[in-house]
Task: inverse folding
């Protein structure tokens, strides 16, 4: 299995150094480039076949990295965007989700959680810290939705706890394909387009709880 190729983008050299050391020390993760400049970040994404870009919220010159996410996806449609931020601004979080980020963590998360998040988004999962997810929930309007089966509610609750597809399969003694089918059914019934949106709707409908 090939390494997860990562680009690190942060306007503080010490943070870039620390993240690069942290991720490069992990088996199966390779940091292929780094920068603190937003325009350079877009160029690096175009130049490197990276799987994940770890993106600081604020970059050199006061650039809001969230505004770069659509350009990053235009340059590399398959790359996964993991935002690291020193603040948990509800509006910024909602904008990042709308722009298409795959994860949003606070910079003070434990190192192991950042590593786990990089692996998870590379595998197609969405990773949001509970405090971040709560901010997204506050920013969304409630829409009427169809009910879910008890098993689908169980799957949704585990999604809300940040569990990956494999972890849900193990917890519920199901195959990975069965879990994927349940997740797809949940999103279809709730009329949403991502796991994060499904969790948001589930909380608002009173089906599940965060925490």
Result:
């Amino acid at each position: 299995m090939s390494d997860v190729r990562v680009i690190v983008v942060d306007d503080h050299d010490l943070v870039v150094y620390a993240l690069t050391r942290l991720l490069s020390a992990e088996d199966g993760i390779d940091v292929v480039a780094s920068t603190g400049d937003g325009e350079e970040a877009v160029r690096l994404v175009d130049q490197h076949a990276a799987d994940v870009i770890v993106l600081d919220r604020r970059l050199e010159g006061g650039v809001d990295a969230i505004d770069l996410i659509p350009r990053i996806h235009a340059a590399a449609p398959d790359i996964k965007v993991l935002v690291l931020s020193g603040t948990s601004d509800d509006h910024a979080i909602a904008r990042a989700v709308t722009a298409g980020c795959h994860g949003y963590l606070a910079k003070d998360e434990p190192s192991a959680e950042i590593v786990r998040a990089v692996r998870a988004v590379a595998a197609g999962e969405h990773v949001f810290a509970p405090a971040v997810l709560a901010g997204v929930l506050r920013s969304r309007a409630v829409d009427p939705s169809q009910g879910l089966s008890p098993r689908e509610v169980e799957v949704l609750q585990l999604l809300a706890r940040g569990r990956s597809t494999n972890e849900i399969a193990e917890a519920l003694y199901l195959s990975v394909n069965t879990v994927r089918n349940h997740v797809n059914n949940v999103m279809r019934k709730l009329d949403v387009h991502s796991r994060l949106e499904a969790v948001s709707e589930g909380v608002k409908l009173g089906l599940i709880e965060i925490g």
